[in-house]
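Thread: Modeling a multi-component assembly for a lab meeting

Hi all, long-time lurker, first post. My supervisor asked me to bring a structural picture of a complex we are working on to next week's group meeting, and I have zero experience with this. I have the sequence lines for every component (924 residues in total). Could someone generate the structure of the whole assembly? Inputs are pasted exactly as I received them:
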Amino acid sequence: MVNPIDPTAVAFLMAENRRMPMHVGGLQLFRKPEGAGRSYATELYHQMRDVETIAPLFLKHPKRSIRTGGQLVWVEDEQFDIEHHVRHSALPKPGRVRELLDLCSRLHGTRLAPERPLWEAHVIEGLRDGRIAMYTKIHHALVDGVSAMRLLQSVLSTDPDRRDMPAPWALRPRAVQDPPANADEVTTSALRTALGISAEAVGLPGAMVRTLRKSVRNETSALSLYAPRTILNQTITGSRRFAAQDWPIERMRAIGKATGTTINDVVLAMCSGAMRTYLSELDALPDSTLVSMVPVGLNAKQSQLASADGGNAVGSIMVKLGTDLDDPADRLSAVHTSMRDGKEALSSMTPVQILAMSALGQAPAILTPLLRMQGLVRPPYNLIISNVPGPRTTHYLNGAQLLGTYPLSIPIDGMALNITCTSYDGHMCFGLTGCRRTLPHLQRLLSHLDDELTALEKAAGV
Amino acid sequence: MVNPIDPTAVAFLMAENRRMPMHVGGLQLFRKPEGAGRSYATELYHQMRDVETIAPLFLKHPKRSIRTGGQLVWVEDEQFDIEHHVRHSALPKPGRVRELLDLCSRLHGTRLAPERPLWEAHVIEGLRDGRIAMYTKIHHALVDGVSAMRLLQSVLSTDPDRRDMPAPWALRPRAVQDPPANADEVTTSALRTALGISAEAVGLPGAMVRTLRKSVRNETSALSLYAPRTILNQTITGSRRFAAQDWPIERMRAIGKATGTTINDVVLAMCSGAMRTYLSELDALPDSTLVSMVPVGLNAKQSQLASADGGNAVGSIMVKLGTDLDDPADRLSAVHTSMRDGKEALSSMTPVQILAMSALGQAPAILTPLLRMQGLVRPPYNLIISNVPGPRTTHYLNGAQLLGTYPLSIPIDGMALNITCTSYDGHMCFGLTGCRRTLPHLQRLLSHLDDELTALEKAAGV
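Re: Modeling a multi-component assembly
Sure thing. I ran the full set together rather than chain by chain. Output:
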C-alpha cells in the first residue's frame, strides 16, 4: 500500500522537529463500571489492544519513496506491532492527579517515531481514587482526515450498559457504530473534543495554504492589533508541561447571566486573570494587554463561539484579554467588548480575508518555512485559547463513565502556551499545554484559574 | 561542541533501523535501605535526576553536518532536558516480575531518538515485594568508549553506609569516586556487567573492522562448523521480549565439581536443555545440534571463560550445544568437549584470525552492510550466549542493596536471541533478549532453564 500524502499533512510532517512535535493528544478520565474488579485496567487494556483488524489510518506511516522521486508517501507498516502503540502504564505513588499530569507531560513531549504508524494510546492505572485514565496521541498529519474523525467519534456510547464497543483504531462495519441520537451529538462526541479539536485549534486547512499566497498582504483590522512581546512569544524547546482541570459550567453561566456576557467570555476572563497573576509572579506582565487568538466557527451564531461546528472552516478573532486591568469585572467587560468587536470585524471580511487571517493565526510554525513570511508579518497575538463545545450528556466506554476529557495541543515557536477548553456533561474542561522551559511552573495557572473564577463570582454578585 | 564520531560508532548508528535498535540495556533490582520511607523511589528518582553537571558523553547526540560534507558528528544537545532521559515509572498491578519484564521489553524495543543524547534511565516502582528496579539504556555508539565505562563503573559502592554517590551521568571529579579495593573489583562492577558487557557481547572493535578485510577468507576450523537453520535465524522485527532470572552459583559449582566441568559449561548446558525443550514445544527442534557463539577473553585462562577482562579484546568460540541429545548429562558433556576444542583451536590461531573470527561472530548486522559479505559466509552459529563475571561481593547504590543485575542485549537479523549472563554476589543472572515475533513465548525459557538446572543436578547426583 503506497498512497500520496496530501499537502497539509506533508506540511505538518515537514514542520515537525525535536522542539515542536506535531501530535495532538487527549486525556480522558473514567470511573470504573459497577462491580469492576481489581484487574479492570488490565481488562480495558486488553480490550484496546486485542483488536482483530486495525483500520488503515492507524497502520500507515510516512516514508520517503525513491520511486516517487523522494516524495513523502504513506506506506503500510509491514511489521505493525499493536503492543508498541497500545500501552498499559501505571502512576508512581501517591497517585495524585499531579503524577498523572507529569506522565502526560512526558508522553506528550516525546515525538512519534516516523518509522511506525503515528499514534499511541496509554491505559493508565494507579490513581489513588481508583479512576482510570487514557492518554491518546496522534499525529496532526493523520487526525486531519474526515475518516479519522469518524473513527474516533463512535467509540463512546450514551448507554451505560453498552459493551463490546470497538477500539478507536479497530476496523469495523458501519453497523457496529452507535446510532446517532442527533447529528449534533455525533459531531461533538467526547473523543472528538479530546483529540480532534485540539488539532483544529492549530490546524491549517489545505484551502488556506492555497489561498494565502494571494491574500497575505490584505491587512485586516483584526491583524493590526498590537500584541506586546512576552515570555510566551519565544523560541521554545521540546519540553512539555500539561495541566488540566475542570469547573462546573453552571458557575460560568451564572456569572454570564449576572453580567450580560457569554460562557465563553467568562472562560476568556478566567484565562485573562490567571495569566495576569502568573506573569506578575514571574515579574513578566507587560504594560499593555495580552492578545489571544480565539478560533471561532465561520458560520457561528453570535451566541456560540465555537470552532466545532463541522470541518475545518474556522476563523479567528484577536481578543484583547485586558490583562492590564486590575479589576476582574473590568477584565470580563474588556473581553466581552473585544469579542463583540472581533465578531463584527470578522463578519465584514471577505471569505478569502478570513481564511488568510485564520491561517496566519493558526499555523505560523508551518507557514513560516512554507511561505518564507518571517519578517513580513509580526505575531499578531500572544497565545491561543480555544473553547470547543463537547457532548452535554454522560458518555460511557464499555460501561466506564467518562468523567472528563482534556485536550493536549501543540505549542510552537513564538507561541509557548495553548489553552484548549472543552465542555462535557456540565463541566468545562481546561487543557493547558506549554513549553516547560519557556513557562516555568505552568501548573500554577490551574489555581490561578480557580481563584479567578471565584473572583468573577464575587464581582458579579453570584 | 562538534566532534567527529569514530568509525565503529558510525557503524552502529548506520546499522540501526526500526527492526534493530542498537542500544544495550541493564535491569537492576534493589532492596530499599533500612528505614526507607514510602517515597523512597521518588527520592531515588530525584537523586538520579537532579544532577548538577551532566558528563559530556551523556550530552551529545549524532547529527549530519553540512559543514563536514554530510558526515555524522557528535554535537552537544543545546536543549538537554534531563527529564526526558531520567524517568520515574510504575508497574501496573499486580506488580509481579512479569509486569516488570513487560515494561523492560517495551522500553528496550523503542529506539532512542537520534535528535537527543542516546540514553535513558527509568526508576521503576510498584513491585509488590517492595523492591525498586532501574532500567538503563544506552546506545552502542556511546557505550563503546572507555570514558563511558569509567563513568558507569563508579556508581556503586561496597559500603552500605555510603551515600551521595553521584548518578552515572553526572560529571564529577575523580576524587569522588569510590577508591577501588582492588583492580578486579573496578573492572567488573555491577553497572559494567549490566550495561557494558551486553554491549561487548555484540561489540565490534574498530581494530576488527580494519583487519577484517584482509583476513575474511582465512577460514578457520571454528568457523566451518555446521549450524542448522532454525527459527532463531531469520529476519527479525522491532518487537522485543526480555526475560530474566537468577540462580545460585553454588548449585552450578556443585554440578561442575561432580562432573569435572566448569560453571560456564553448566550455564551453557542449562541453555542447551532449555532451548531443546523450547524448540521442541514449537515443533522446531533441528535434527543436528544448535551452535552457539560464546565470547571469550583473548587472554582468558583455561578456567575462566569470560569476555570481561578488560577492553574489547574478545575472541569467540563456536560451541556445539548438544541439543540433539536426549540426556542432560550427555549435553553437559558435549558442551564441555566443544568448549575445550574451541579453546584449543583459538590458541592455535593467529591474532588476526582470532580478530576476524570474532568480528564475524559478533556483528553480522554491521559487517553485512559494511563489507557486503552477505552470501560470502553463512551464519556460523544459531545464537549468542555470553557469560561475564561480575562483582562477587554485595554492592550498594546509596544504601540500597543491589539484588540482581540483568543485561539486555541486541538481537539482530539472523540472530533473534541473545542470552547474556552475569554473576553477582553468588548468583548467576540470566538476561534473555529476543524478537517477540520471531520467538513466541520467549519467557518460557526461564522455567526451562530452571528445569534443566534441576535435571543436571539429578544427573550429577548432587
